[in-house]
Amino acid sequence: MNKSAQLIIGMMLGFEKSHQIFQGVDWDSDMADQLLDAKPITKEDVFSMTPNGKSFFEFKQTWEKLRKLFDHLAKNGHEATANDLTKVMENDKTPIQMAAECNALEDAFAPDLWAGNLDKMEDAWYSIDKKKREGKDFLAMKRTVAQMEGKELREDQLAKAGLEVRVVREAVKGGTLAQSIEKLRARGDHLRLEDALLCDDDGDHVFTLRLSWDNFDKLCLEWKLHGEYPDTEFFQFSRAGRASIIQSAFDHNMQNRVFNKKVFDGRPDEMIRLYNSLSDHHKQLIDLDYVLEQMLEETSVDAVPVDSDLTVERLTDIIYTPPADMKSWKPVIGLGLKKTWDDITKIRGVLKNKGESLSMDDLRSASGLHGESCVLKAAQFDKFHEVLSIMRESGGQLTAEDLLSKQPGRESVLDVLLDKKQLDMLLKPDLWVRNVTTLGKIWDALPDQIKKEKKQAFHEAYTEANILSLRSLNPSTAKPPEPQVTPPILPRGPGGPS
User: How far apart are CA 480 and CA 242, in angstroms?
Assistant: First the structure.
């Protein structure tokens, strides 16, 4: 703001010549010339600091005549809004916070300033120090703004049912939820999503309290009965920069109460939208693939029925595609679901009767948001032995990529087998006929402690796999060659030179 704008705004607001806001302004012919050349006052002028380091919003007189100033801006095509009153200025304060400091809250919250911006009004109110808000009837201020918008405050609707906001909040966190629900039903009303957004005097929603999360499942059921479902905006709700609902969930280690199929039943895209809004740290605490697959299990009953119509093609058909803007995430196929692997024996029987069978290429199909293979999915579902059976039946082979590849921050098949203490499944020599190199790569990828424990078992598997490989090259050999101490194909294997 330049001095001419400073002088014009001050005079418009009726400040006396001696007022400190004019400190540093020279009332002389040079200033007169500047005033003659002055451009119309802009919003930037009003919401910036004066050359002497002051803000007009520091003074009650500004707030008393704020509408006059805003009307003048509007005439010059610079409309000021409620949003401008909550933006931090160069003195690290918002205009609203300065209004509180000069005891001008009644003027700052004049209804006509906030018409159509009730949410912003609440944000502004709770951004003010609690002690400076004491004695002010904010509910009355809100009510007037709501009436200007043709709305009735939820607080007033609850009051008609004989319920105070305090009582509803206590019901959510305590044991009187059922009683509050019945009171509302008696008046033809119900517990609504917006009831969870009613704040206390500090501006905190009810889920800031740990006990409230114990009732979250019941609340979701009540909301669902009346066609209400929590969405991303609901979970992101907060006032004046305080903890949002989703942040409170993580604060209380309740994120799994949010990310589950009960909350987002039939709305996987909405769950993904909420997930995508999280910080990288919080994303790491959610196994979205697992939750999404749980949600799709019921879908798979229709998408992948285990009946005479089942084919390999249907097992690898896409049953869910992520939203288009989530370009890095991959579709889910039937073969990637736990239910499919729970029924895999029956599924293979149905396919066999039709002359079809699964192959390793089918199992390498990607499924799930991270694009992980169905080989990995099977291992996660404790069905890796079925993978081996399919491999043997189809004449395929496991590759190092099958077992060792993984997405950033995720796990490999080998990781899963180690975690489940199922590494011995890989020590069957017949798995590695003409493929002993892959067994060597598995050995190289093992942690040192596991190498110590499994050195002998790996050496025996190497040796026998080499024998079977040589025999397969000359099936007519009546007597297999004598095994060598160091496996001939992989001299770096256990027992060989390091």
Answer: 75
